[in-house]
Design a protein that fits this description.
This protein is an alpha+beta fold and 464 residues long. It contains 18 helices and 8 strands.
Length: 464
């Protein structure tokens, strides 16, 4: 059955009186001016303004809108506008599609701009530095993270830190580094540059390296602005202690003539020295369970450098150093036993630190470094640090004829390369023990000039 159509002069009253058709087809009531405007009434009673025309010989019908939302005059004006477009050879449907597409593009552009603004506000250089520091901490490099955090906080200004990380330029990074360098902090400038470069490189590689945290990907780093900035060479230290200076150093640590004997921080410095110049941070992380009394072997963990997992570093100790560690083990166990008795619980001996003032946490390396500085001031003369002591040990070991390979194993230097990484599985236990025996003999010879060797041995057991 064909759709019913008729023509009248439309008014609001006439439109209101229009009744739904009896059949299943809508009816169309056309206006007399313009003739292209009609009211469509569906069997359900819905009434809409409709534009009807032809493009060539093809009928065209476009719904303008419901009669309860469109004024009649507005509907007539819209019908006339659409007819003008057709008379100009323009299909109103295509124009509408173009308008919708343009509006959609505008909306998408606005959303993209907002997302970019949000990203820039969120993924700043400060946020990149924080994410990189978190990655360092998760990798067990807490000391490096602490050092980098201090540098970032002190030397990255607020404006640069708040800038989107991907928008930071080489000129801005260079200005940061130059400012530190011109303040006379050459090493700090070089380390700041290195840490910034590492942060940018980590974010740049994150989309492709599953070992890096996924939260670095969102920064969208595609290039490293630090690459354009030359590295600042670290001034290599060359300070070594003479035998006389080392004798004075050991005398202060032994507290010769003092009733109480060495303090705990002094014991840490002594053990680092007698164990072959070990890194203080690694030594202070040692636990009671890391010492094997049957073989007099102390296990340390070397996480220095780019290792993802710390490397086991075994020290087959010579007698004096073994005596020190045995005394430290007994001290830790006795203190835990007393504390457990006071608290009414069983002693927990498994996770005890060798170096701990109260047994809860390991001694801070800074405490030991500060003690070394005090001793240095007390001795007088040219200043030295814990690192200089380590350098002195290796220099003297070389003078004693200890091979470079054995020294590298003993001091846990950066052992790398294909041979070391994949093929050389020799533990160097005998070589390290022999070297430490020779080293202890050399230290005894240095101390015995002023003190009898018996004094050196006797004081190991006087640890408070």
């Amino acid at each position: 059955m064909a759709t019913e159509t008729r023509r009248i002069h439309l008014t609001l009253a006439k439109i209101e009186k229009l009744q739904p058709p009896a059949g299943q087809q809508a009816i169309y009531v056309f206006d007399d001016d313009p003739k292209c405007l009609a009211v469509r009434v569906t069997p359900a009673g819905a009434k809409s303004f409709v534009f009807t025309s032809k493009i060539g010989k093809v009928p065209l019908r476009i719904t303008i809108g419901a009669v309860d939302t469109w004024f009649l005059d507005a509907a007539r004006a819209e019908a006339k506008r659409l007819q003008v477009l057709i008379d100009q050879g323009i299909d109103p449907r295509e124009q509408k599609r173009d308008r919708i597409a343009a509006e959609e593009a505008k909306r998408a552009a606005a959303e993209a701009a907002k997302a970019e603004a949000d990203r820039q506000a969120r993924y700043t250089l400060r946020a990149l530095c924080d994410a990189y520091l978190s990655a360092l901490e998760r990798a067990g490099k807490g000391k490096s993270a602490a050092g980098a955090r201090s540098l970032f906080k002190c030397h990255i200004d607020q404006d640069t830190a708040s800038k989107p990380a991907r928008a930071v330029t080489a000129h801005e990074v260079a200005a940061l580094v130059r400012r530190v360098r011109e303040a006379g902090k050459e090493r700090a400038a070089g380390v700041l540059r290195s840490y910034l470069s590492a942060a940018f490189n980590a974010a740049k590689r994150a989309p492709f390296d599953s070992a890096l945290p996924a939260d670095l990907i969102a920064f969208g780093i595609e290039h490293n602005p630090v690459d354009a900035i030359p590295a600042i060479a670290v001034q290599r230290g060359d300070r070594t202690l003479s035998a006389a200076e080392l004798r004075a150093y050991i005398g202060h640590l032994l507290r010769i003539g003092h009733e109480t004997g060495p303090e705990l921080s002094d014991m840490a410095l002594l053990l680092a020295l007698y164990a072959g110049g070990q890194r203080m941070a690694q030594l202070l992380r040692a636990k009671v369970s890391d010492y094997d009394p049957d073989t007099a072997t102390l296990r340390l963990w070397d996480g220095k450098g780019k290792r993802t997992q710390p490397r086991e570093h075994l020290l087959p100790l010579a007698p004096h150093a073994a005596g020190m560690v045995a005394a430290l083990v007994e001290r830790a166990k006795a203190r835990e036993t007393d504390r457990a008795k006071q608290e009414g619980r069983a002693p927990e001996l498994a996770g005890l630190w060798l170096f701990s003032t109260h047994g809860r946490v390991a001694m801070n390396p800074e405490t030991v470094s500060n003690r070394a500085a005090e001793i240095c001031a007390g001795i007088g003369g040219e200043a030295f640090t814990v690192r200089d002591i380590r350098r002195t040990v290796e220099t003297m070991l070389a003078g004693l004829g200890i091979s470079k390979d054995t020294r590298a194993q003993l001091l846990s230097h950066g052992i790398s390369g294909v041979q070391a990484a994949h093929y050389d599985r020799h533990a160097y236990t005998d070589e390290k023990r022999a070297a430490l025996v020779v080293w202890e003999a050399r230290l005894e010879a240095i101390v015995v000039v002023d003190q009898a060797p018996s004094n050196v041995v006797r004081l190991w057991k006087r640890v408070a």
